[in-house]
Amino acid sequence: MGVSSTSVSSSRSGRGFGNGWGYIFIAPVLAFIAIFVIIPIAAAFYYSITDYDLLKAPRLSDPLWKNYGRLFDDPRYMRSVTNTLFFAGATVPAGVVTSLALAALINRQIRSIYFFRAMFYMPVVSSFVAVSLIWLWLYEPQFGLFNDILELLGLERLKWLRSPDTSMLSIVILSIWKNMGLNMVIYLAGLQGIPPHLMEASDIDGAGRFSKFFKITMPLLAPTTFFVVIVYFIGALQMFVQVWIMTSAIGNGSLTGGPLDSTVTVVVLVYSNAFEYLKMGYASAMSVVLFVVIGLVTLLNARILSYDIGY
Amino acid sequence: MAVARTEPVATVRTEGRAWPVTRRTLLYLLMSIIAFLAVFPFLWSLLGSFKSSEDLFEFSVADPGTYLPREFKFDNYSTVWGLNFGRFFFNSAFVAAVITLAHLVLASTAGYAFARLEFRGRDVLFAAVIATLMIPFQVTMVPLFILVKNFPLAGGNDIVGQGGFGLVNTYWGLTVPLFPTAYGTFLLRQFFQTLPRELEDAARIDGASEFRIYWNIILPLSGAALAVLTVFSFQQTWNDFVWPFIITKTEEMKTIQVGLANFRQEFNTDWGLLMAATMVATVPILIMFLMTQRYFVQGIALSGIKG
């Protein structure tokens, strides 16, 4: 990291180098990470091959892969996988396009730009519980604002969250709205990192507005796009709160994620198996599969990001 | 245009000098529409929280007279406050403050060592810390709950962690498992690396200990970065739902997000009441954001997310 090369004199002076201070400074954070992140990951792998209900000590399953085998015979789990992938597949591309468009829109020095940026960012700083509740009201079939507006426009009222055809789509729309400001700021940082001379050069060449965007801006933003896509995708795989607030059935875990399982996600099932049915082993098997998928996506990300765009 | 060269924001604005009024108006119009879409649900919720059930029932889009409450009533708020929201509010503020403080201490010490000190295995350990950024909480929540429940010698547990409830439903359980802060460590290390070395080197030659350099030189220079981390951690913990939801069992221990979620189950369609509760949980964080918004933008720039 160039520490010794940038200041030869201080490394000669000796203090702070090679003595124990470094370890003392990092020990606390490493200890907390070890206890509350590393051990639980290892434990998830262990519990996933056991039968464990929190009351009696965990017992190894027979056969060891029993919990994993059951996943594939569980139609609700398979449904949650397709729902989760659908959610990710819908929110990620739409979210990336909207936030890039927003970033391009506000990347200018005009009056009151900070005001607009702050407005776009407000959904990001609110909690998912709160915005899900607000949108639950907006989507309400009978008293909700959205249906009133549809009716005013002469369109048909929709059932939104109450119909299996539109329930997941309703959650997708809310989620894109919630996150557009976050990825907008990330894209904005990317846009502002593009050296002005590149744009000036293309002006001299007489490039048009759109060809400049697609031929210069987009390729230069490729690393940002990969970052946004992966982080967004990993986040989407963990979707939980929206379902818990908007489509849960009161006191009945087997109905959460309705109607007709149309919004049940993987993490909803991890939660309900672990904390409603006390099937810790089975829930852990689901967590491990999720972990492996996210790990693969991350590795792919690291590989793609490791090349340098070099401007 | 000389300004365009020195002004980093001006990159996509090369023909900006000659923007006709109509295009500029169009731009403002477009941005206003989007800003309205972003903010509208909050305004709608705020209005709803002041409405009586009759107001809500009589509302019609076709009649602008029904948009505002006939009378701004605080009844919903007093009901909400009476239903334990004061306690939820305190719990959230306390838990968020403790976790934020822990993040500041842990991330600044570790960030200093990773940025400035040389020791064996430093880069490998730093890479390991960064790698944990990619471990989603939803994957560890089940074993984490088991760990907290079986914590030895706590909450009636014996030495091997059996027999009681451990740290479930305690402030310990609400806060300590969220202390790990790979993000904060990364953020502050990036920032510390940008600080000039001359002051520290001078202090080292004068025989100052590493702790004094960290405390008397590095920290006072890092107000902006520490502010970024404070704002991020506080906002994240205040909004956190899944862990407090799993770990709290009684009304006295619930945080505001958990209280809000339970509220939805209890008061299914009492929208005025639900929106008042939503505003109690949201307005403080929105105000904090509006007062500190430059730190949010800085935080993202500091993380060097450009790629």
Short description:
Chain A is mainly alpha-helical. Chain A has 15 helices and 2 strands.
CATH architecture term of the largest domain in chain B: Orthogonal Bundle
> Roughly how much helix do the residues of chain A carry, as a percent range?
55-70%
Proportion of residues in β-strands of chain A: under 5%
Q: What structural class do helix, strand and pairing data of chain B support?
A: mainly alpha
CATH topology-level name of the largest domain in chain A? MetI-like fold
Strand-residue fraction of chain B? under 5%
Structural class of chain A: mainly alpha
* Tally of separate helices of chain A: 15
Give the C-alpha Rg of chain B.
25 Å
**The CATH superfamily title of the largest domain in chain B:** MetI-like
Report the uncertain regions of chain B.
1-15
Tally of discrete structural domains of chain A:
2
Shape of chain B: flat
Query: What is the helix/strand order of chain A?
Result: HHHEEHHHHHHHHHHHH
Q: What would your notes on this structure say?
A:
- Chain A has 15 helices and two strands.
- Chain A is mostly helical.
- Chain A folds into two domains: 45 residues, no CATH class; 203 residues, MetI-like fold.
- Chain A has a two-stranded antiparallel ribbon with strand order 1-2.
- In chain A, helix 3 crosses helix 15 and helix 14 packs antiparallel against helix 15.
- Chain B is flat.
- Chain B folds into two domains: 55 residues, no CATH class; 227 residues, MetI-like fold (Orthogonal Bundle), CATH 1.10.3720.
- Chain B is mainly alpha-helical and 307 residues long.
- The N terminus of chain B is likely disordered.
- Classes of the chains: A mainly alpha (311), B mainly alpha (307).
- At the A-B interface, helix 1, helix 2, helix 3, helix 5 and helix 6 of A face helix 2, helix 4, helix 5, helix 6 and helix 8 of B.
